[in-house]
Amino acid sequence: MTTVRGRPSLTERRRQETRMEIAETAAALFSERGYEATTVEDIASAAGISLRTFYRYCAAKEDALTPVLTSSVGVLVEQLAGRPVDEPLTSAVRAAFDAPASARRLADPDKARRLIRVMSSVPAIRTRWLAAGRDMQDQLVPVLAARTGATEHSMEVRLLACALIDALSVAMEHWAWQDEPGDVAELTRRALAYLRVDELQAAARG
Questions:
Q1: pLDDT (tens digit, 9 = 90+) per residue, 154-182?
Q2: Contacts of 40 (CB under 8 A, 6+ apart)
Q3: For 37, which DSSP code?
Q4: Burial, 159: exposed, middle or buried (Cβ in 10 Å; 0-12, 13-18, 19+)?
Q5: Which among 8, 107, 16 has a CA at the least distance from the CA of 66?
Q6: Is the Cβ–Cβ distance between 175 and 189 less than 8 Å?
Q7: What is the Cα gyration radius of the chain?
Q8: Is 76 in contact with 132 (CB distance < 8 Å)?
Q9: Exposure of 155 in the CB half-sphere (CA atoms within 13 A)
Q10: How far apart are CA 78 and CA 20, in angstroms?
């Protein structure tokens, strides 16, 4: 069956959905019972899948939440790639938050905040998060290079990708741990403005 170029096949979309279901189930159990007290068997049972299926998608328990990161960054990269290259980066990122795919992920703020709290507080998972952050920077580099006209090997472009990911990570963690969290998109805008990423983007253009 032929699929639209650039769009995941039906099989891949189902895999992504399964990964996200496992991640959301694991986050709920980690929050309720604690990371150490939750077993892989618990996650598989709550998600309605077999242990074999769990290990097909996750090499270990601490990998269960990784799809949350990779999926969110995929949306950001896709949205930034589709925005005008001369648009301020803060505006482009805000538009990415307003995109339907992002809106769906944030439709249940309590669930989203619970996922982030678990990812940022459990050492074994946080290690995966930090590693995923580096991968996300690499994904952003070609997109940001196109926006600045610089090469992908430019130090300035790589620093811009690093600043962008760090700003998003700090803003999301801050949002997740507040008693009255407010609007996550506005927190992200503040973080990007504080780091002056629009000026960094302009500087990278040379």
A1: 999 999 999 998 898 899 899 999 888 88
A2: 51, 54, 55, 61
A3: T
A4: middle
A5: 16
A6: no
A7: 18
A8: no
A9: 0
A10: 18
